[in-house]
Each structure stands twice: as C-alpha cells, then as structure tokens.
Automatic annotation (TrEMBL):
Organism: Ectothiorhodospira mobilis
The name this protein goes by in its record: Membrane-bound lytic murein transglycosylase D
Listed Gene3D superfamilies: 1.10.530.10, LysM domain (3.10.350.10)
One of the record's GO molecular function terms: lytic endotransglycosylase activity
Residue segments, region Disordered: 1-32
Membrane-spanning ranges: none
Length: 424
C-alpha cells in the first residue's frame, strides 16, 4: 500500500522530462519478449538465500496457476509501465510491485481504502495529483497512478539515500515508520539496513515477496515455471480525447465494445470522461488510429448526448440531481445556475441521455468489483474463519484466490474477498 507521505520530507513533484539514455558500450540485440527486456534492466540484489525470500520463492513456485493468472491479467499494462520505469532509469523489478500490491487487479480496494494496482490511499493519491471525484478516481487510472507511484518511489529513494529496500518498505509502511525504526536501531547500536529493522509484519513480508517474484521471473526454467508470452510491443495506447466524451461514443469510434473500454479505463466511474479532465483513454493499440481519426471528425455536439428535463411544480435541484444520479454541481455547471433556484416549466439539460436510471445501471454492473477488499493473512487465520468473518463461502475464497481447500494460509499472504457476493 502506498503509505501517506510525511509533509516535511516529501519533495515537490518534479517536472517530467525525457532523461538522457543510459550509455551503452555494446549495442545489444533486441529482446525476444517483454520478460527478457525486463531481465536486462533488473537492478536489485537477489537475496535468495534469506529465509523470508526463499519461502516466497517456494510459495509462488508451488502455485504456478495463480502466478500465471496474475501475469495474464497484467499483460495489457506491462509494456507502458516498463517503458516509464526505463525512462526514469529505475529498477525493472518495480514492474512486479503491483503483483504484490494488488495482483494487478484494477478494482481492488483494501480495508484502508487503498485503491488501484498501486494501492494509493485517498490522502496519498490526492497528494500526488490523483483526482478523486464523482466522475473519476485517478488511483484506479493505470496511467495516472503509475506516474504518481513512480514519482513517489523516486522521492522515497532520495529520502533513504539510494537504498531500494528501505524505499520499498517506506512505500508500504510510510517513511516515518521506517525512519523511526532506523533511529531505534542506531540508538541501540544495531545495523540499520532493511533486514535488521523492527517493522510491521506486512512490511517484513513486502520486500521478500517482490524479491521472490523477481527471482522466479529472472530464471523461470530453473524454477519449473512457464511464463505467459508477452510481446515486447504496446498492447494499449493512450489517446488524448481533447475534452469530455461518452464512453459509448468513444467505443464506437474505436470499433470496440464499451466493456473493453471500461476495463482498460477503470478510473472512470460514469458513462463519460470527466468534464474537467483528465481527457485521455487507454485503448487497444491497433484501435488507436481509428479513435484518433474519429475524434478529429466528430462534431462537438456529438461527444456527449443530453436529455431535456422539464421542471415540474414542487421539484428542486437536489431532487432532480438525485433522480439522474448526478451531483448538484454538475447540473449547476451545465445549465449556468448559480444557486438552487429553478422554476416550474423551465428545461434543464441532463448529461448522459437515455433514461434517468442509466447511470445507476452502469454503477450496478460494477457492483461486485466495487466491493472487493484485500485481507492480509495474520497468524491463526483459516479459510473457514475468514469465510465466517466476511460472510462468504470457503469455496468462493478458494476460487477468488486460486487456492486449494486444504491449503494452509501463510502470514503476510494477501487474499481477495468480495463481501456480500452470492455463493457460486
């Protein structure tokens, strides 16, 4: 989880500019796939001999189906994230950090309300410029959250004098927690590296999990793993829309279905992109030219459909907004209303078109995803006990997490749970 930054120790977000390329003594052959490209830029110490790391190597290696599903889920986003990691000259292992954080589940939300693949809590997300409003949650926007997460990691890396293990621990537990642990060890005359610090249990397992994943992907054959093939080319492309647009309109222009567009843009909570931005969409790479061409020819009046609502006697602005599942401010803005006064007989423009419940249906379709929570296993946790606690079945717990019914849970392991879901 991206822990809250300490106000006095966080630097202002740097202006992003293209860094100079790393010097190369010999021009290497092009990588065969994205995994090989990642291996070439791995930079963290392995630490495979440490018991915490070796245990997770055994666990992930013993659950190849689970790992493969996570990597398949991540596939559309791997190329652009690795591109940004390389652009900033960061260790390629950071590509695997969302596996630890969220299993690359775009809609996952923790008990601390951390959201998205990088698991930003609301305050940290806002600190790094991730908008969270009625229309949009930037923490779930893969592009925006990736930029924010890497910026945060860069700041932590400078704060902890270039020590990546302390950086990662601080990303999880907060830089104040790590700094206090360092001061405590220093006062006691003990080593102040990550492995000797007294940190929260989750943080003690956090770095070993990442290092175990890196070890497995660095040498999958030795560990008997077969990785899903991922070509070293973009599978999705970011398209600037130039303003608000309905998802149905954008999907039609791109030649894809709305569900595909929503899956690639999980930060969007409504039927259209936010009026105030951000104005971008991730689309399949081969459909980006069609979307750009369609946007260039699209009449401004066709970007968002509208319906007219005739105000009846006794109606008030808040009630009309609630009927159409809109914030009152949205109605004020599109209709040029300064206060709350409306008159019977006048017409209001309602964004979204269709019937009054269309936005509600869109939200209902996402209901199961919105209820996802993450549970970090503690000593003594069992599948049966967790099923009782969250009101779900053991069968669902095993299905959601690729577990065997008799499998023993490990402290630090993360489970995905959908409270309130009907038993399958």
């Amino acid at each position: 989880m991206a822990a809250p930054p300490e106000p006095l120790e966080v630097e202002p977000e740097p202006v992003l500019s293209a860094p100079s390329p790393r010097p190369k003594e010999v021009q290497a052959a092009a990588p065969r796939d994205l995994w090989e490209r990642m291996r070439r830029n791995m930079d963290l110490p392995r630490e495979e001999e440490r018991s915490r790391v070796s245990r997770y190597i055994q666990w992930y290696g013993g659950h190849p189906t689970h790992l493969r599903r996570v990597l398949v889920r991540a596939e559309p986003f791997l190329y652009p994230i690795l591109e940004e990691i390389e652009r900033r000259h960061l260790p390629a292992e950071l590509l695997l950090l969302p596996v630890v954080e969220s299993g690359y589940r775009t809609q996952v939300q923790s008990h601390d309300h951390a959201a998205g693949i990088w698991q930003f809590i609301p305050s940290t997300g806002a600190h790094f410029g991730l908008e969270q409003n009625w229309w949009y949650d930037g923490r779930r926007d893969v592009h925006a959250a990736t930029m924010a997460a890497l910026t945060y990691l860069e700041q932590l890396h400078r704060r902890f004098d270039g020590d990546w293990f302390l950086t990662l621990a601080a990303y999880n537990a907060g830089q104040g927690t790590v700094a206090r642990a360092i001061r405590q060890n220093r006062a006691l005359g003990r080593p102040t590296d990550y492995w000797h610090l007294d940190l929260p249990r989750e943080t003690e397992h956090y770095v070993p999990r990442l290092l175990a994943l890196a070890a497995l992907l660095a040498d999958p054959k030795t560990h008997g793993l077969s990785l899903p093939p991922v070509p070293d080319r973009p599978q999705v492309t970011l398209v600037r829309t130039g303003g608000q647009i309905e998802l149905a309109v954008a999907a039609r222009l791109a030649g894809i279905d709305v569900e595909t567009l929503r899956a690639l843009n999980p930060g969007l909570d409504r039927w259209a992109t936010p009026p105030e931005g951000p104005h971008h969409l991730l689309v399949p790479a081969d459909r980006a030219p069609a979307l750009r061409a369609g946007l260039a020819e699209l009449d401004p009046g066709e970007r968002v459909t509208w319906r007219r609502h005739r105000v009846r006697r006794g109606e008030y602005l808040g009630g009309i907004a609630a009927r159409y599942d809109l914030p009152v401010e949205a109605l004020r803005r599109v209709n040029g209303i300064r206060g709350d006064l409306i008159r019977a007989g006048e017409h209001l423009l309602i964004p979204g078109g269709g019937d009054a419940k269309a936005p509600d249906r869109l939200r209902a379709d996402r209901g199961d995803e919105d209820r996802i929570v993450r549970h970090d296993v503690r000593p003594g946790d069992t599948l049966w006990a967790l099923s009782r606690r969250y009101g779900v079945s053991v069968r669902d717990l095993t299905r959601w997490n690729d577990l065997d019914k008799e499998e023993t849970l490990r402290p630090g392991q993360t489970l995905i749970i959908r409270p309130g879901s009907e038993a399958a």
